[in-house]
Amino acid sequence: MSMLAKFVEVAPDRFAEILEEPDSVTNLFTEQTAGGLDLIGRLAKAAARLDPATADRITKDAPGMLADAIERMQNPAIREALAKRLGELGIRTPELRSGTQGQNVMKLMQERMAALQAKFGGGGGAGGGAGASPKSAPTQISLDKAWHGVHYLLCGRAEPDRDLLSQVIMGGTDIGDDEMGYGPARYFAPADVAKAATELSAPGLEAQMQGRFDPARMLSLEIYPGGWDPSTLSWLMDEYHNLRDFFAAASAHQAAVITCLV
């Protein structure tokens, strides 16, 4: 079973509500998965950039691709939340492979594409074309399976310690119960987010991380998910950049960050 690390930026008022009702933190992660409908959004953007024949094939394949994505979800709570949200949007997930849901999925893709065009200026999709708005920072990220490898490169250890860089991925303050499968969610208050953002952007950090990359040692320490070889360094550094930029944006918004393994 895979362990994926997710991080969510939380506005101060919402953060205060979660602190008052810790059990609600689970909803934060199911909302991000069920409400985001990332796959639908990605398919819509891809279809908008391709020739009509290829776009039509993507649209026809979309129900099966969505069914595959749901079946691969390891956490039942998130899988059920996504199915519920899709049902509210007119898509019956048990029938995705039956050929009867194509029009409903296509309608949802069109709605997502219209929303993207409205947000980014139309015509070119996100990040494309003249007049497009600047790319906005995400309010959520997933490091997927790279989380432990990035943690190791940040601090040189398999487990967190007291130093901040070892806390960014595997630390924080526990909140709520262990309902996601791999321990409770953890939070960083806005002041801690600001400190982490500074540490993650420190001069020379990238060089230090690259210097720590040692596939043999990482295998001996059982750094998840294993299979380390020279080709995996670029993957880890890309995910580090995503984490750095995410914390920088959250700090600029004076937001909290809540993270969880799912």
For the record, the CATH class of the largest domain is Alpha Beta
User: Averaged pLDDT, please?
Assistant: 82
Count of separate structural domains: 2
Q: Helix segment count? A: 12
Which class of secondary structure composition applies to the elements?
alpha+beta
| Spatial separation of the terminal alpha carbons | 10 Å
Q: What does this protein structure show overall?
A:
It is a single chain. The chain has 262 residues and is α+β, with helices and mostly antiparallel strands. It is built from 12 helices and 5 strands. Strands 2-1-5-4-3 form a 5-stranded antiparallel β-sheet, with helices on both faces. It is globular and about 55 Å long. The termini are close together.
Question: Can you give keywords for this protein?
Answer:
5 strands; 262 residues; 12 helices; alpha+beta; single chain; globular
Task: Walk me through the topology.
Elements: E1 5-10, H1 12-20, H2 25-36, H3 38-49, H4 52-72, H5 76-88, H6 102-120, E2 140-144, H7 147-155, H8 164-170, E3 173-175, E4 185-188, H9 190-200, H10 205-212, H11 215-220, H12 233-252, E5 256-261
Antiparallel strand pairs: 1-2, 1-5, 3-4, 4-5
State the gist of this model.
The chain is 56% helix and 9% strand. It is of the alpha+beta class.
